[in-house]
Amino acid sequence: MSALPKVYVTRRIPPDGLDILRKSGQVQFELWDSDDPVPRVELLNKVKGCDGILCVLTERIDAQLLDVAGPNLKVLSTMSVGYDHLSLEELKKSLLIWACIFCRGIRVGYTPEVLTDAVAELTVALLLATSRRLIEATHEAKTGGWGTWRTMWLCGHELANSTVGILGLGRIGVAIAERLKPFKVKKFIYTDVEPRTELANMINAEYVSLDELAKQSDFLAICCALTPETHGICNWNLFSKMKKNAIFINTSRGGVVNQEDLYEALSTGLIAGAGLDVTTPEPLPTHHPLYTLKNCVILPHIASASYTTRNAMSALAANNLLAGLRGEAMPKELKL
Fold it and tell me: Can you give the residue ranges of the D-isomer specific 2-hydroxyacid dehydrogenase catalytic domain (predicted)?
């Protein structure tokens, strides 16, 4: 009787996913049983000879790791919707080993859609916290700054009659707009690599250029994937075209923002405020200049952090892994 496929799970994932793996009887798996990332040396040691890996977004899956894992590795399942931590070219690369051509041909599963609602909710929360200056207000109340009522103290910007821009219109962008519509937003606009007519019609959004997105938006939500084309796309060129009362929100990936340019835009009053759930690097060092700004709200990458969503992500990642190892269609496979 052949041995069960060997799997390494790089983090203590939520219980629903672990239960699926344990009860499947289809794999033998080893778990890095910690909430903290597995050390790189440990990771490289544990993936040797594995048939499958279930990872999270903190693990860098590159040529070094794939070489160490070896030719047995057939499936990689990431508990994330983003995949910029995966070297896609290496995953599908052909290698010359012992005078033989070896095609990795590794299948990749990921977890889109299940986190749409949680990310959209957090984006709206971050937008409101930033635009209505809730973190500042809480600090003032706690530290004795709350004195007599003042006419313009802690005034912020409201959504009613505003224009909301979305950079990268996908499921999450649509879900954000659906949640913002009851706030009496006047207009939704978006830009993407091309018009997304079907999605745009769901929220009555107008396709515009990146320049127009910057110029017209009172609130700008960044929802695009991190790719070579979007890396650093939110830079001084973008910020310099935005309104002085504009609120910038990023819950996508930190790499799409030039943080030095954002700091300058915020510290000089070029834009009114920014809310960030993602940064570069993560965690953002506590001495980073952005932390010194009252008009910048920074969260520790918690957009998908609801009990329901994290369990759904772990379950989908586990089912992707098992289906891939069986040679069947994955529930959600990233086509390479």
Answer: 7-333
